[in-house]
Amino acid sequence: MTLEQIAGIAHEPAGMATGAVVLTHGAGGSRESPLLVKICDEWAARGWLAIRYNLPYRRRRPKGPPSGSAASDQAGIVEAVEFARALTSGPVVAGGHSYGGRMTSMVVADETAKVDALTLFSYPLHPPGKPERARTEHLPRISVPTVFTHGTADPFGSIEELRSALALIPTATEIVEITGARHDLGSKSLDAPALAVDAALRLLA
């Protein structure tokens, strides 16, 4: 497996890497998402190798929503995690934004990929305006520490809904609240990438 095969871009730390982080994008996005770039820069600044990569549907076409099957996207996540695992003897953290984070959490819940922690950004608890369509059925099977970085104005789920969902996870979790942020986690006052990395390092410790 190579970086090209997972359509990945690596952010390398100054010295020997503590571990590796693999992150992927939301449904309409790509590895070029400004949020992913900032998060990977933050991990690299803390001494970790960080890789942002495209899901299989995005490798097939440059724009548009997920096409094909969730199973193929999940297989792409397994490849990325295995690639990262081969690069380090340290911990491996995986996750992503929205759809990418959800798919990653499903792979980890199914134990088809082994990671030491999950870091999920704007987890899409349900489609906007449709709280009855909860995307939480796999959460009780997550067995690794998980960070949820979430905007308080995210239409895909409120902080209260997220707290209820986290009660389903039988391991350590933390919510990083980004006040006033919507699904893109944009904030003029809070550094979401730095806060998310802080939380992940706390849970790994």
Which structural traits does this protein have?
single chain, 205 residues, alpha/beta, seven-stranded mixed sheet, 6 helices, AB_hydrolase_fold
Could you estimate the helical fraction of the residues in percent?
25-40%
The computed structural class is: alpha/beta
| Rg (CA only) | 15 Å
For this structure, the quaternary state is single chain
Question: What do you see in this structure?
Answer:
The chain is 33% helix and 18% strand. Helix 1 crosses helix 6 (192-204) and helix 3 (70-87) packs across helix 4 (99-109). The mean pLDDT is 97. The protein is built from six helices and seven strands. It has a seven-stranded mixed beta sheet, with helices on both faces. By secondary structure, it is α/β, with parallel strands linked by helices. The radius of gyration is 15 Å and the shape is globular.
